[in-house]
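Weekly structure sync, notes
Attendees: PL (lead), two postdocs, one rotation student
Agenda item 3: pending single-chain targets
PL asked that the sequence for the first pending target be pasted directly into the notes so everyone works from the same version. It is reproduced below exactly as submitted, 353 residues in total.
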Amino acid sequence: MRHQRFIAPLLPIAICLIIGIMTGYWLFLQAELLLALMAVSVILSLLLHRFPNGQTFFIYLTTLLMGCWLIQHPLPDIPTVHAATTRMLSYRTHLVAELQTLPDKPSAIISAMTLGDKSMLTKETREVFNITGAGHILALSGLHLGIIYMVLSLLIRNYRWRMVSQILTLLAIWAFAFLVGMTPSVVRAATMLTVYGLLSLGYRQKMSINVLSFTAIVMLIIHPHALFEVSFQMSFLAVFAILVFYPILYGLISEQWLMEHRVVRWLWGMTVVSLTAQIGVAPLIAFYFHRFSTYFLLSNFVVIPCAYLILVGTLLYLLTHLSLIATFLSLIVDFMYQSLQWIASLPCATIEF
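Predicted structure, written out during the meeting:
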């Protein structure tokens, strides 16, 4: 069953689209020539339906040419989407102002972790998170949306009306995506969760390289320049590495033994996720930021449980404004930050080159 993850017919299509976008970015081709080549490629792919290998080749070629076309002639922005994003961002400003009633440091960190507003983060705070390899927790991504999806699924679960509850959950996820500005990592996570939620209605395999590839194809068709954004690259490579390597590393320990030791299973799962994600993003971090965080595993054992508590606690605080919840949030953030400061002070906490 695990090997089914590696059967991904959409992966080569996504790769061809990426190659096409990169080719079109560096090599300008006349629009008429591109259209003519795409037309010929499409016709040949239709004519060769009795020859699967030949048809596959021209499908890939068509996708590559489409990538060239998209980067040179991107689709226009949808005014409705832009207006909705602008309106939701103004509402986010209001929510950030409500969080500013908390102490300065917790307020800045919570605003970044829950609403994607990093404007109040100091250089010192950013550096502590970056040195320890916990910088990803400040950038909204699949982890954050996954937590929100899980909480919403528990709150509005209805076994008799599964489709209705799933649609309501996904609408809430996309509302949150608009609220935080539709960044590439958030759009990727929201799209994957949408596919995951819809597939769950049919009890099918929900998360796979195919789903990731489909998400990349959709995002690159809509916004091909996203390919050259660091957040897009890190987001997709981290998830790709998790999907590929997680089953291999997780299977090193007997599943039956893990089922009998739930705490160990939870710790082992978190360890494997952190390791596999690091495999995906380490080359990019080295290339763009010229550093490697030595104690990233230790940092993740601190920040991931804290992220659950902070996201749920912030939602409760915004709904109730109870001082008790505000105190709880401050304590959690202080614990997380002081723990990261201690990790950052350890010898060789980061290797810079």
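Discussion points:
- The longest strand covers residues 291-293.
- Confidence is low (pLDDT under 50) at residues 1-6.
Action: rotation student to compare against the earlier draft before next sync.
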